[in-house]
């Protein structure tokens, strides 16, 4: 795909993911709008550069998530431990949104693998649908007050390594490992292994969200 169309499509995806992060974890975006645009542009370039190399393509999403964690920590002033959790939750969630639309459109023959890989206009329907659906989810979160409010915005906040935080850390690391390997199985492995890893990741992601909501209620 040519560079400019790719960036014009990729950057809004990251804008949607960042706003989903702010909405779900009740982080005020005021004062961060230039940061959001800058980070989205950077992540779009990371995505383009890594996908241009066939050997790096399978690791593209993992590298983007790593850069996103660092940006949440340094630019949005979220402690590194919590930046890793919230970035994992929202990026993997958005990845499942994409997978949902991709498989749905394939099953109904709206798009094909060739159209997506060739960068045709029809292939843009998946990211565009994912962006719109993400903003719909954001509206639902705000309308029904589903935000989680236990993430501190002080970069120097201490992280007590109690049983709860160790659980967060273990599940987050497992999700990141699974999310990294799932793209290897997508291109090289049996379909049933890909489906199995996907189901496990969904369960772990729901556990992480559930634990976050329990912690939020306990802090209240």
Question: Which short descriptors sum up this protein?
Answer:
220 residues
Give the arrangement of secondary structure elements.
Layout (H helix, E strand, L loop, with lengths): L2 H22 L8 H20 L1 H4 L2 H15 L5 H28 L5 H6 L6 H19 L19 H26 L2 H29 L1
Helix pairs in contact: 1-2, 1-5, 1-7, 2-4, 4-5, 5-7, 5-8, 5-9, 8-9
Describe what you observe in this structure:
- The protein has 220 residues and is mostly helical.
- The protein has one domain.
- Helix content is 77%, strand content 0%.
- The chain contains 9 helices and no strands.
- Helix 2 runs antiparallel to helix 4, helix 5 packs across helix 7 and helix 5 runs parallel beside helix 8.
- The protein is globular, with a radius of gyration of 17 Å.
- It starts with a helix and ends with a helix.
- The model has no long low-confidence stretch (mean pLDDT 87).
- Keywords: Membrane, Transmembrane, Transmembrane helix.
Helix fraction bin: over 70%
What's the total count of β strands? Answer: 0
Rg, Cα atoms, Å = 17 Å
Helix/strand/pairing class, anyone?
mainly alpha
Overall form: globular
Distance, first to last CA: 48 Å
Low-confidence stretches: none
Count of domains: 1
Order of helices and strands: HHHHHHHHH
The number of distinct helices, counting runs of at least 4 residues, comes to 9
Strand percentage? under 5%
Largest sheet: none
Overall average residue pLDDT: 87
Keywords: Membrane, Transmembrane, Transmembrane helix
Transmembrane segments: 6-25, 32-50, 56-76, 121-141, 166-186, 192-211
């Amino acid at each position: 795909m040519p560079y400019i169309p790719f960036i014009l499509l990729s950057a809004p995806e990251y804008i949607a993911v960042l706003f989903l992060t702010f909405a779900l974890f009740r982080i005020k975006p005021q004062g961060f709008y230039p940061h959001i645009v800058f980070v989205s542009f950077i992540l779009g370039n990371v995505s383009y550069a890594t996908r241009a190399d066939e050997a790096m393509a399978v690791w593209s999403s993992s590298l983007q998530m790593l850069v996103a964690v660092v940006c949440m920590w340094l630019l949005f002033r979220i402690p590194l431990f919590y930046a890793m959790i919230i970035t994992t939750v929202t990026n993997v969630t958005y990845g499942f949104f994409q997978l949902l639309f991709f498989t749905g459109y394939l099953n109904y023959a709206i798009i094909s693998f060739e159209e997506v890989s060739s960068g045709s206009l029809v292939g843009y329907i998946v990211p565009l649908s994912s962006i719109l659906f993400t903003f719909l989810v954001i509206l639902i979160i705000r309308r029904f007050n589903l935000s989680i409010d236990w993430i501190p915005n002080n970069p120097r906040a201490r992280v007590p390594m109690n049983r709860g935080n160790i659980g967060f850390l273990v599940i987050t690391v497992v999700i990141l490992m699974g999310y990294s390997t799932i793209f290897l199985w997508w291109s090289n492995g049996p379909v049933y292994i890909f489906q199995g890893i996907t189901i496990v990741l969904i369960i772990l992601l729901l556990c992480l969200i559930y634990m976050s909501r329990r912690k939020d209620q306990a802090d209240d």
